[in-house]
Write a structure and sequence with these properties.
By secondary structure, this protein is of the alpha/beta class. The chain contains ten helices and eight strands. Bound molecules: S-adenosylmethionine.
Length: 284
């Protein structure tokens, strides 16, 4: 076993290391969660003329889709804390001739010089606030009264085998402390009671949830088991923990992950593993 790395999975520095990791694997990350984004966009059903804020927009794929839906009479503004992702999103919008716009700021405290928005959207960009009530309260000041918010957040890891099984393999090689429930991070809102408490305290009402369940392509559609493992190790926090454990441990874990993906999950579409997310809406 390598040395325990108790801090290894804590905190996600999106304006720095994590933003750079997301950018380096942008196509793979976006390909993996594209079906969930499509489900959330379908549920949100944007109409021409609406003004929509895309919270934690990352590389801006969903912001561009929203811009196309709301048209030139509407507005799609992507807000993200990671400068490298906002730069990539702006380049993408320019290349596509999209009207989507992007602002780099911390959504928890930002004050935008913008008219209020009709809607707020976020595909996995709302779970990272250290003080979520304050952040969602700040976001509400950017919205018209009654504005609808649509959020995709991950359900519990036990329903996300892409995370559970990878962690299971990695834990055979290094010690990883159990996650702290409700801590900022991808699974902060796995418990919907907690999310409803936050939204209620922040002044939102009428939370309504649909479950999304399906298989997602680890490392994006068409990834081989080796591609998928490279993606996992270069982009997920477990990869950093393994880096710290040394070459031998990392190589052994890598081989076991390739074996897991090859034996149990590869099919014609890629490395397909079960995922579950909550598609949440509420009113400001
Ligand atoms: C999992 S990624 C999702 C990116 C994008 N929504 C997508 O689906 O492709 C989470 C995003 O939230 C952003 N983020 C995290 N904390 C933030 C904050 N306090 N303010 C604004 N953006 C934040 C990150 O920089 C990152 O781009």
């Amino acid at each position: 076993m390598g040395a325990p790395a108790p801090e290894a999975l804590k905190g996600e520095d999106w304006a720095g290391e994590m933003g750079a990791r997301w950018l380096a694997s942008l196509d793979r990350f976006e390909g993996m969660i594209a079906p969930i984004g499509a489900g959330l966009l379908e549920r949100a059903a944007y109409r021409p003329g609406e003004r929509v804020l895309d919270l934690g927009c990352g590389g801006g794929a969903t912001t561009l889709a929203i811009a196309a839906a709301v048209g030139s009479d509407g507005a799609a503004l992507g807000l993200d804390i990671a400068p490298m992702l906002i730069e990539a999103a702006r380049q993408r919008a320019a290349a596509a001739g999209s009207t989507a716009r992007f602002i780099c700021a911390d959504a928890a405290t930002a004050q935008l010089d913008e008219p209020p928005f009709d809607r707020l959207f976020s595909r996995f960009g709302s779970m990272f606030f250290p003080e979520p009530v304050a952040a969602f309260t700040n976001l509400r000041t950017m919205l018209k009264p009654g504005a609808r918010i649509d959020l995709a957040v991950w359900a519990h890891p036990r329903d996300n085998l892409w995370m559970m099984e990878v962690m299971g393999v990695v834990r055979q090689h290094i010690e990883i402390p159990p996650a702290t429930p409700r801590a900022p991070g991808p699974f902060a809102f796995e418990d919907l009671t907690y999310l409803e408490e936050i939204l209620t305290e922040a002044g939102y009402a009428g939370m309504d949830v649909a479950a999304y369940e399906g298989r997602q392509a680890v490392g994006g559609p068409g990834a081989t088991p080796q591609d998928a493992v490279d993606f996992v190790l270069s982009s997920m926090a477990v990869g950093r923990a393994l880096d710290e454990a040394g070459d031998e441990t990392r190589a052994a874990a890598r081989a076991d992950l390739v074996d897991l993906f090859t034996r149990r999950h590869v099919d014609g579409e890629g490395v397909m593993m079960q995922a579950k997310a909550w598609l949440v809406c509420a009113q400001a």
